[in-house]
Amino acid sequence: MFIPMLVTDFLRRAVKQYGKKIGIVDGEKRFTYAQYGERANRLSNGLLNLGVRKGDRVAVIDFNSHRFLEAYYGVPQIGAIILPINIRLSPNEVAYILNDSKAKYLMINEELADIVKPVKDELKAIEKYILLRDGLAKTDLGIEGMEYEELLLQSSPVIERDFGLDETDAAMMFYTSGTTAHPKGLMVTHRNMYFDALNVIFSNRFTHRSVMLHAIPLFHGAGWTSPYSLTWVGGKHVMLRQFREQPICQLIQREKVTNLFLVPIMVNTLVSYEDIGKYDLSSLERLFIVGSPLSEKLARAAREKIGCEVLEGYGLTETMLLTDAPLKNYLANLSEEEKMQKVVSAGFANLFSEVRVVNGKGEDVKPDSKEMGEVIARGNNVVDRYWNLPEETERTWVNGWFHTGDMATIDEDEYIQIVDRKKDMIISGGENIGTREIEEVIYEHPSVSEVVIVAAPHERWGETPAAIVVLKEGQNVTKEELISYCKGRLAGFKVPKVVEFVDSLPKSGVGKILKRELKERFWEGLERKIA
Hints:
Elements: H1 8-18, E1 22-26, E2 29-32, H2 33-50, E3 57-61, H3 66-74, E4 81-84, H4 91-101, E5 105-109, E6 128-132, E7 146-147, H5 148-153, E8 170-175, E9 185-189, H6 190-204, E10 211-214, H7 226-233, E11 236-239, H8 245-255, E12 259-262, H9 264-271, E13 286-289, H10 296-306, E14 309-316, E15 320-324, H11 336-343, E16 348-349, E17 353-358, E18 373-379, H12 390-396, E19 397-398, E20 401-410, E21 416-421, E22 426-428, E23 431-433, H13 435-443, E24 448-458, E25 462-471, H14 479-487, E26 498-501, H15 515-523
């Protein structure tokens, strides 16, 4: 008999096998898996009572919370589609996503009401609001709706009918980060998330003994899968509302956290925390880095300060997790430097993904760590189209392969090294220059905290690398000193001709550096634009 692969089965298994176990820690609140399952069922029935039907989009604007975890099951188990919204977006950006997705219902934390209030009248499809409350209600929300806990109290804890779900049904809807254009919507099926959950379980070696601290927001690409993968094996979820160094260290120590997902900027902040040595972080087994490439310098700092295995993973909104970078056991005799180069690469294809690096003709590049090509991928975890964008879909999915737009090399052991975004490639005098290589070199400078390389116009060469640098507090380096530093470490055509020092770099809501904004400063007013 064919049994569909449904993410909603994960919580049912956890309730049956680990019902008495604490499954969620959220501040002072603790919920067993039995309570987790009951509350998710109450949410499902409450949504049905409000009129939610199969295929309806239910958007969520909230901090990391037990409610968010409940929604990851309570929404899709009745055939509706959960739509997590980035709380760092502007009201206009949120309005675009809500309107484009045609979301009918919005669960929103009362403390985040200002994200919606200015554009409330522009939200064409929203029919009802569900208000999420952490403390005392605000006096002037400007939004009327049902309070979440009241909705649950009025609803049955038992799901009494089969909703006829199929693994090809959409379970959730996400939007790309939109750093270069409007965000693009993606319908993610139960089957997509099922296989992504398997990839994450194997990559992070999740078991019922695992304790994961949710430091990355649940609206982030790296946060989507953990409500499913960790629940499936009966691990413990520890919620963190906002990223702060002290609360993270306190929670790791108190809850004996074993697994932590972070993006590089979070790692940098954590390892720079002056009081990190005051906490017992010995329970941590694995720090998994996602979102953007990890520098060797930061990887070493993380190992030294946190004292656990550091792994990097690679994926996109459209693909979820594609690769990870554990050291293959037959490479144990490599030098420490060679090992580190493997570990901080994007890694190799995980169990349920196919990944290739190809040239412009679609041929695999040489596995020599030199020839660059585009990363393409396919697998059950890869989404197959954009929402209502047929032309963009046709350009991006070719012959069954998703074209990531990321440029990379691959070595003889199948480790992929992301060199650049295809659109970020600098072409100077006919030479292709990957910005990541230059960033790595400058990042090694002891006075540098952050750096980004973009293309600036050059009268002779067309384009030249420009370095925008954030120095560490109290440090002082001149443009000439930094260029001299690069000359001894890079080919001449790769050395930045332009260096600017800034107090901070513009970042998206998920911590990605907004290169487009930095590029536009250099090209403003010129006939030719790059973005």
